[in-house]
Write a structure and sequence with these properties.
- The complex is a heterodimer of chains A (about 525) and B (about 100).
- With about 525 residues, chain A is of the alpha+beta class.
- Helices cover about 55% and strands about 10% of the residues of chain A.
- In chain A, the strands form 2 sheets. Chain A has a 5-stranded antiparallel beta sheet with strand order 2-1-4-5-6. Chain A has a 3-stranded mixed beta sheet with strand order 3-7-8.
- In chain A, helix 16 runs antiparallel to helix 17, helix 17 packs parallel to helix 22 and helix 21 packs across helix 22.
- In chain B, helix 2 runs antiparallel to helix 3.
- Chain B is elongated.
- Chain B is built from 4 helices and no strands.
- Chain B is mainly alpha-helical.
- The longest helix of chain B has 23 residues.
- Classes of the chains: A alpha+beta (about 525), B mainly alpha (about 100).
Chain lengths: ~525, ~100
């Protein structure tokens, strides 16, 4: 049983306790088949690992990837860097086939794990062709992370000249510390539990059949333990229910036979077995003439065995035919593109329904706190899109083609340049777009600076949520505290009077039309955004 | 239609025109925005934010972009599927009636 899962189950049990016996059965089911049958067999087995107080299993430190630099690996020749805005949100890396997208993804996996899952099933040729043919000498992968609670860390994996894929060495260096082994990151368990990447082939395998999809999701999410425990419990329950119903079926006949005998012991048995609850002990002592312990031992077991009846052959045939028919129907739908799309759409719309019904909350699948927020739903709006292109000699280039700051500035510029837009309308719309750009620049900076300082994700998110005005946001970005709103203008003035003026114009622009030239405002906003992004450490 | 359009291209063309006409009607109903009707579609879509709010403007912007792509042949991309077309037409119907309601308000 996975410790993290067990921890979750124990926490839930602490929140909404079950009866003592049910708790023992549940924990035994989680522990395994043997524990469960021991527990149900009445052998007071010791409770499996952990107790209700909750076992603390340390979570790995959360981190955001800030950049990934790759050279001489797969489709990447000379060094190419993928820079990301560290912080939550959606980032798409796009590009044509063969442009080098997967090389980046696989480089990160190799950097952290030293191996590549996708290659496991491929022939040796793949394992030999991992170096870039345009840069066969040196291979190096470097990633910068911002780690919660610690700050910046740089991980690196290098290969000696001409060395095999497996002969690499890796290290990590936290800011202000000595270079040490990768285990300093303490991610090895997390990397094994949660595969770092879902490759295309793994995603494809998801859509084989609905039950296959569930099993794959469960295994990727590390939930098999829960489903196998549930299956064990269901199986144990089924056995007991069928035994009970067999007894109930046999009861009328038994009562009839008891009635027909005049024996007083039979009358005693009859009394014990009629009514809502059976007094088994009384019946047993009447029948055997002696008081027998509740646990009847061998005899009891034999009696129960004698009462088992197999289903009639016709019934079994019919049931099997019905099952086969249903399975064939399911198969027919599951393979079609419509079936796949439906399965995926179903999954996503269930997530949205859950959010609609229950509002913001923890993610029901992975348990990440407050993952289902309005922000998650609108993640696509703030998406950053990076395009990867590969030129001759495997020179890979990464270009931001949709970055929220640039997008808003470009829209504002286009509107300001369109002179057929009525001036009054432009004066109302352009400042809003410029403000959006500057806000995005502030937000990006806040994530970068606060994560570097080792703040936690939830803490930063709460601070951002509380920063409801441009001035508070600026205070948070410039001074690290939204309460320092008063310092915003002096700080901007220190950069130059123009920056402070632009900031004030954008602040006013949200409520009233901008008095000056919209084109000028876009240019000023661009300079301010660049300054925010570029000059804050 | 002057000539028969290839399958899949007609519906997005008509839907895009319906969307653009509904936006033009919105401007016509507001004196201070009257000149917007003759601006580029990009400008008009950007200005929608000020009149309809972020959500509706974003929907209109996306629909317009999707329909515009679907109106043309792309040598390296597949034509839109029937399901995509139906989705866009439903969205267009919805947005046009929303724009009409706002135009009258």
């Amino acid at each position: 049983m996975d410790d993290v899962l067990l921890d979750i189950v124990l926490k839930r049990l602490a929140e909404s306790p079950l009866a003592e016996q049910a708790t023992n059965v549940l924990l035994a089911a989680l522990d395994g088949e043997e524990s469960l049958s021991a527990q149900l067999g009445g052998q007071a087995g010791q409770r499996p690992a952990g107790d209700l107080a909750g076992v603390a299993s340390p979570r790995p430190a959360a981190a955001f990837l800030r950049s990934l630099t790759v050279s001489g690996f797969r489709g990447i020749g000379k060094p190419a860097t993928l820079s990301l805005a560290p912080g939550p949100g959606l980032t798409l890396v796009v590009g044509r086939n063969g442009s080098g997208k997967s090389s980046f993804a696989e480089a990160l996996e190799v950097l952290l794990t030293g191996e590549l899952r996708r290659w496991e099933k491929l022939s040796a040729v793949w394992h030999q062709g991992w170096r870039s043919m345009h840069q066969p000498e040196d291979a190096e992968i470097t990633a910068e992370f911002l780690v919660q609670g610690t700050g910046a860390a740089t991980a690196q994996r290098t290969w000696p000249k001409g060395a095999d894929f497996t002969k690499s060495s890796a290290s990590v260096q936290f800011a202000g510390e000595k270079r040490t082994g990768l285990q300093r990151l303490d991610w090895s368990k997390a990397l094994a539990d949660y595969r770092p990447f879902l490759s295309h082939s793994e995603l494809e395998a998801f859509f084989g059949s609905p039950s296959g999809l569930y099993e794959l999701l469960a295994s990727v999410l590390g939930l098999e333990d829960l489903s196998s425990a549930a299956a064990r419990l269901a199986q144990a329950r089924k056995l007991r229910e069928s035994a009970l119903s067999d007894v109930k079926k046999a009861l009328p006949e038994l009562l009839g036979r008891l009635r027909s005998t005049g024996d007083e012991r039979a009358t005693a048995c009859q009394d014990a077995l009629t009514g809502r609850t059976w007094d088994l002990a009384a019946a047993q002592s009447a029948a055997t003439g002696a008081r027998v312990a509740a646990d009847g031992g061998e005899l009891d077991r034999l009696r129960r065995l004698a009462q088992l009846t197999a289903p009639a052959e016709d019934e079994a045939r019919e049931a099997a035919a019905a099952l086969r028919h249903a399975a064939a129907g399911l198969e027919a739908v599951a393979g079609s593109p419509a079936g796949r799309a439906r399965a995926l759409a179903g999954l996503l719309s269930m997530a949205l329904e859950h959010h609609d019904a229950h509002g913001d909350g923890d993610c029901p699948v992975c348990g990440r706190p407050a993952a289902l927020t309005g922000q998650w739903r609108q993640a696509t709006e703030a998406a950053a899109i990076l395009e990867v292109t590969r030129r001759p000699a495997s020179a890979v280039e990464v270009r931001a083609c949709l970055d929220p700051v640039q997008q808003a500035l470009r829209d504002a510029g286009a509107l300001a340049a369109d002179h057929s837009v009525p001036a009054e309308v432009a004066a109302r719309v352009v400042p809003g777009l410029c403000r959006t750009a500057v806000e995005a620049a502030f937000t990006e900076t806040i994530w970068r600076r606060q994560l570097s300082a080792g703040r936690g994700h939830a803490e930063i998110e709460a601070a951002l949520e509380a920063a409801t005005s441009l001035n508070l946001l600026a205070g948070l970005a410039l001074t690290g505290d939204a309460a320092n709103g008063g310092q915003v203008l002096p700080r901007l003035n220190a950069w130059g009077r123009r920056f402070a003026d632009t900031f004030q114009a954008l602040n006013k622009g949200a409520h009233a039309a901008h008095a000056g030239d919209p084109g000028q405002l876009v240019g000023d906003a661009r300079k301010l955004a660049e300054m925010i992004r570029g000059s804050l450490p | 239609m002057p000539r028969r359009l290839g399958s899949g291209r007609g519906p997005p063309l008509l839907a895009r025109q319906a969307l653009e006409l509904a936006i033009a009607a919105l401007w016509a109903a507001r004196p201070q925005a009257a000149g917007l009707g003759s601006c580029s579609m990009r400008s008009q879509l950007l200005c929608l934010t000020a009149y309809l709010g972020q959500d509706t403007a974003t929907r209109a912007g996306y629909l317009s972009a999707a329909l515009s792509r679907a109106c043309h042949y792309h040598s390296y991309e597949l034509a839109p599927t029937a399901a995509e077309l139906t989705g866009w037409l439903d969205e267009a119907t919805d947005l046009v009636s929303l724009l009409r309601a706002r135009g009258q308000a």
